[in-house]
């Protein structure tokens, strides 16, 4: 059951990434770009979570997972603060 939940979380984040970046390509609104990049980082985070717990349970990827999440949230924060329209 855990494998299904981890996979669905990663796929949902990937779908959000695709939709946000496609909307950015159509409209050019920069906040969509930063949101899409954030979700791309969250997709990596979720994929690393699945790899950490399901494929390599003996290897701790905690730092790498949190680094991916930090980069993702930092990108969104940058977009929210510095991109004004």
Question: Could you please describe the fold and organization of this structure?
Answer:
With 85 residues, this protein is mostly helical. The protein contains three helices and no strands. It has helices at residues 2-27, 30-55, 62-82. It is elongated. The mean pLDDT is 95.
Low-confidence region ranges? none
Strand content: under 5%
Molecular shape? elongated
Question: What is the chain-wise order of helices and strands?
Answer: HHH
**Major β-sheet annotation:** none
Computed Rg:
14 Å
Mean pLDDT, as a whole number? 95
Query: What's the total number of strands?
Result: 0
Number of separate helices: 3
> Structural class, please?
mainly alpha
What would the keywords be for this entry?
about 80 residues, elongated, mainly alpha
Write a brief structural summary.
86% of the residues lie in helices and 0% in strands. It has helices spanning 2-27, 30-55, 62-82.
